[in-house]
Amino acid sequence: MAQLISERRDVDFVLHEQLEVGKFAEQEKFADFNKKTVDMIVNEARNLAIKELLPTWKDGDTIGCTFENGKVRIPESFERAYDLLKKGEWTAMSEDPEWGGQGMPKTVALAASEFFNGANYPFMMYPGLTHGAGKLVETFGTDKQKQLFLKKIYTGEWCGTMLLTEACAGSDVGALETMAYPQPDGTYKIVGNKIFISGGEQEQLSDNIIHPVLARIEGAPAGTKGISLFLVPKYRVNDDGSLGAFNDVVCTGIEHKMGIHGNCTCSLALGGKDDCIGELLGEPNKGMAHMFLMMNEARLLVGMQGFGCASAAYMYSLNYAKERVQGALITNPKGGGVPIIQHPDVRRQLMMMKSYTEAMRSILYYIAYCDDMAHLATDPEEKELYEGLVEVLTPIGKGYVTDRSFDVVSQGMQVYGGYGFIEEYPLAQLLRDVRITLIYEGTNGIQAMDLLGRKLGMKKGKIFMSLMQKIGTSIAAAKAVPELAPMAAQAEASLNKLGEVAMHMGKTAMSEKVMTAFSFAHPFLDVVGDLTAAWMLLWRATIAQSSLGKKKKEDAFYNGVIKSAEFFIYNQLPVADGKMNAILRGADAAMSIDESSFLS
Amino acid sequence: MAQLISERRDVDFVLHEQLEVGKFAEQEKFADFNKKTVDMIVNEARNLAIKELLPTWKDGDTIGCTFENGKVRIPESFERAYDLLKKGEWTAMSEDPEWGGQGMPKTVALAASEFFNGANYPFMMYPGLTHGAGKLVETFGTDKQKQLFLKKIYTGEWCGTMLLTEACAGSDVGALETMAYPQPDGTYKIVGNKIFISGGEQEQLSDNIIHPVLARIEGAPAGTKGISLFLVPKYRVNDDGSLGAFNDVVCTGIEHKMGIHGNCTCSLALGGKDDCIGELLGEPNKGMAHMFLMMNEARLLVGMQGFGCASAAYMYSLNYAKERVQGALITNPKGGGVPIIQHPDVRRQLMMMKSYTEAMRSILYYIAYCDDMAHLATDPEEKELYEGLVEVLTPIGKGYVTDRSFDVVSQGMQVYGGYGFIEEYPLAQLLRDVRITLIYEGTNGIQAMDLLGRKLGMKKGKIFMSLMQKIGTSIAAAKAVPELAPMAAQAEASLNKLGEVAMHMGKTAMSEKVMTAFSFAHPFLDVVGDLTAAWMLLWRATIAQSSLGKKKKEDAFYNGVIKSAEFFIYNQLPVADGKMNAILRGADAAMSIDESSFLS
Fold it and tell me: Which of A7, A358, A441, A566 is catalytic?
């Protein structure tokens, strides 16, 4: 059967040949997850994704969500899909079994997540946000809060959300106006209005919804330092775990969006009519810091959503290009029509999609791998290294990956020609769905600022240096392989230039030219991403080169891995070099232009 | 009032300061179109666009087109809009007054077209295709055909379409299967099925629809050389011009598309039940050549559609960025929220949008200008020069302009943040609408092949050389202006590299590496487009620099023109240099990869 969502062979390559996740089983924590178990997990996840989740993807788009008489309805087919996820215990794969998790390495969970999100990510947002809410309770909750809420959240019995955004507080969360009034019993009355709440209300998947809410305690300072985190259930929870009264979390409407129609995006009014009672989660005025601890995970999930669309777009386009007969070869104009995969421009499109897809897969899995390694590390330096890599790679895994995923999906639409624009074919929905991933969980502009403003200088640049070193190590290994040496040399030249660019950016961001520096934050994100992608592709090619000839039927795959690296390094890295030259040139037109010169 | 579709000041700049269209009035043919008249035309067009067409744009999207009981319905508000276009005599602006046209220079007509298409291009496709059908009748019709059809088409009384595509004949028109059977009276019975026919059926705008149809006369050769063009009315036309019997052109369905919902995309069955009678238009077996004569115009219209979306996206985003308050300045973190236009990353986004929008406006107007000049030229060499420039710039005006327009609209969505993804705001529809412009009228891959395969080598490269020379002349002029000399030097270096790239592409496209060469056709289109954009921006900056200080209130505009050039030349041209390096490197991974290595 043609691969529909993700190339299974490549998933296995990343898991076992690039990251060797089977070795995690040597550690006590992951003793249950040897290679055989990992393969079984991926099998099961893939089956569930293709057989049960993928068929609900179109429903999400065409039936979508409705809001009538104060009730939100989501597509009916999502109920069964959610039920299967719960029953298969896929809702908290890498969490502590004590609280209903499966205790898997994150790298392994990511493979399941890739198939699930590739099949229907707007649906997967319901369990995804639920998991995030659980993580907040696990990390900051009191014992009682954990006892009452955590297992029900991690097992998917109750859904969860995340209430940050308000009409005047989007990228600037610190501007939020929702208030929390202390009550004598230690709880808080929450009053405010939240918007853009994914899965904010529904009755079909769960009989309660747990909302972590950012709000300001009466009298707390303005801005981010006066924000606290609260646990606000839709229905109050009695001490015995049973449901109590409605907690006045009222859905006032849902958004009509360009894509992800299957996920309801709700406006919620808290405490507008009656009492909405919240419990403090964690410390007062530490809400932003608490949220930030969860942010990396949420951002990487968004990276996976974008990537899921890209991977599916590549698979669909590839299948289409092999089947669609159109036009003769330019070298044989009288030879009649050929499958369009034989035409040079279509091949360029497919190679672009292939190389980015493979690079992005490895980037995302590698970040999960670093997270696992950080948790396993006993040596503090090793722990610091891997934690640092997660930090510096998160804006890449979210910002760069979703930017490029959008490009890949759009390229896939181009492969389909006119059919790409027709809603009966998959590319239109993929393009509409993928577009939000560049915006939410911090716009990609925010990701770029995070990379430049926080990550580049973190620990005096040590973390960014460790990324550069990791890339350098892989390049050196590739250089030692004669077949790959020319590619490695090109990558090395670009990496050296990136070193120069990072120095330049770090210096100007601390100078009076700080505004100009930040106007290059996004191009900087692009080029750090490009070098990270080149790194992954070269690393992959090095493994593939050494594996060639071992099993004849595998050579086609390994050759493809090498070709992806070649295409990217020779065709995309020169463009990255050009971007780096522009950054080094540092022209300041964007900042020096007077606002009046924009006219309008 | 904030500009909603296009920056009027910039339109005037291109018309009067860059291209000096008022001078056309010195020629007898255009004596009626002095500067004052031109300004009046632009005023009227802009008013009509903003007051009457723009309010119908959302209707097109939300009401859309329906197909029930064999009837197509388009949004009701389109009826009045179409009526106003007809009454205002906007349907054949640059055509011969003898046939109902206004005899305007194309450059002037383009300004009206910019406002109309920016307001509601899916609606404008109805009159747009009508005009194209009229042009075919004017160029290839017999006297009788012209008498019977032409004036009614040009005045919009009857609508027109273009029937090329079939399910197995998209990019490869030569594969079409529609047949034409000669009848004793000299007419033909047409039998076949066409798909993707924009405006293929409706009853609300006109009581007849004239379909130019590509079909193969019984016994004609296979492929493109056996294709003829026919005139096929929906209702036959009696010799006195009155409507006769239904001509068995049956709409069998409409497409459900990602965007341009206001334009019905029809499947048409010809002669499936009864007789569908067509008259030959032009010479037998010359259908493709005849169509090609109209292709440039159709492609430039698509360029304008894409550009219209980009220009509107820029205007909307700019207004939003000035109004939306969010986040403090990084240089003044305690200063409270500021309009987002003050944030460096947003400024970069707006400058990207501004510079591309201005460059694309100038490119499209310049192509129309070349067309006018070619028609006015009495000197054969001058005529050849301008005709050649139209040829070589058409793939830029369609392919490059729509590629970049999509980028600009997507960037605009990013400026809006979460609101960009919500359908109540304009960006979502703009992004959905603009996307088809990269596909239809020859996908942008086809445009790239046209540039490399036909235009680059046309007249032994003389035409491409004349483009290079034109660019060089503008660079030389800018170099003589001290303030612009550094920019000009950067552009000159890139132009020299483009010369090298063109030589390389020309050579490899004629060698055994032809397939590899064509796998770089699209990057080649990109860089020729980039240099064309840089040329326009530098030309504009040269005028702006010499105009600074003349009228104080104009300086903001002129400074903005110069900043656009600076931004593009220092930030985008280095990226073009990188792309050119990749082209020169000529890596062949896309062609040398074995098909089996794509897997799936």
Answer: A441
A8-154 homologous superfamily: Acyl-CoA dehydrogenase/oxidase, N-terminal domain (1.10.540.10)
Does the pLDDT at position B1 exceed 70? Answer: no
CATH of A159-285, one of 2.40.110.20, 3.30.230.10, 3.20.20.80, 1.10.3720.10: 2.40.110.20
**CB under 8 Å to A556, separation ≥6 — which residues?**
B594, B596, B597, B599
Catalytic residue among B95, B391, B441, B566, which?
B441
Nearest by Cα to B589 from B524, B521, B527, B519: B519
Predicted TM-score (pTM) of the model is 0.98
To 10 degrees, what angle do helices A521-547 and A462-479 make? 30
Tell the CATH topology of B159-289: Butyryl-CoA Dehydrogenase, subunit A; domain 2 (2.40.110)
**Band of pLDDT at residue B600, cut at 50, 70 and 90:** low
Q: With CA atoms as reference, report the closest residue to A539 among A366, A374, A391.
A: A366
Q: Chain A to chain B, count of Cβ pairs less than 8 Å apart?
A: 307
Predicted complex ipTM exceeds 0.90: yes
Q: Look up residue A339 and give its DSSP letter.
A: B
* pLDDT at residue number B3: 77
CB A525 within 8 A of CB A443: no
Whether the predicted pLDDT of B482 surpasses 60? yes
Q: Pick from B102, B75, B89: which is nearest to B45 by CA?
A: B89
Q: What parts of chain A have a pLDDT lower than 50?
A: 1
Q: What is the pLDDT of residue A125?
A: 98
B329-378 tens-digit pLDDT? 999 999 999 999 999 999 999 999 999 999 999 999 999 999 999 999 99
Cβ contacts of residue B482 below 8 Å, gap of 6+?
A: none
* Residue A116 half-sphere exposure toward CB, CA atoms < 13 A: 26
| Mean pLDDT, range B530-536, rounded to an integer | 98
Query: Which tokens is B430 given?
Result: 């703009």
Q: What is the per-residue pLDDT across B285-310, written as a single tens digit (0 to 9) for each? A: 999 999 988 888 999 999 999 999 99
- pLDDT-derived band at B162 (thresholds 50, 70, 90) equals very high
- Known active-site residue B76: no
What is the bridge-based pairing of β-strands B277-280 and B209-217? Answer: unpaired
Q: Is the dihedral of CA A440, A446, A451, A454 positive or negative?
A: negative
- Tell me, what's the pLDDT at A2? 67
Chain A contacts of B598, Cβ < 8 Å?
A: 318, 341, 350, 354, 560
Q: What is the mean pLDDT of chain A?
A: 97
- Tell me the Cα Rg of chain A: 24
* Burial tier of B429 (Cβ tally within 10 Å: 0-12, 13-18, 19+): buried
Pairing of strands B249-254, B243-246: unpaired
Q: For residues A423 and B468, what is the distance between their CA atoms, to the nearest angstrom? A: 42
Distance from the first to the final alpha carbon of chain A: 55
Annotated domain spans of chain A: 8-154, 159-285, 444-587
C-alpha A19: how far from chain center? 19
Phi, psi for B170 (deg, rounded to 5): -105, -95
Identical topology for domains A8-154 and A159-285: no
For residues A251-272, one letter each, b for 16 or more C-beta atoms within 10 angstroms of the residue's C-beta and e for the rest, the string is bbebbebbbbbbbbbbbbbbbe
Other residues' Cβ atoms within 10 Å of the Cβ of residue A531: 25
d(CA B124, CA A296): 46
Q: Which residues of A touch B7 (CB under 8 A)?
A: 599-600
* Tokens found for residue A128: 């995804």
Tens digit of pLDDT for each residue in A370-428? 999 999 999 999 999 999 999 999 999 999 999 999 999 999 999 999 999 999 999 99
Question: Nearest chain B Cα to A566, which residue?
Answer: B589
Asked if A439's CB is within 8 angstroms of B420's CB, the reply is yes
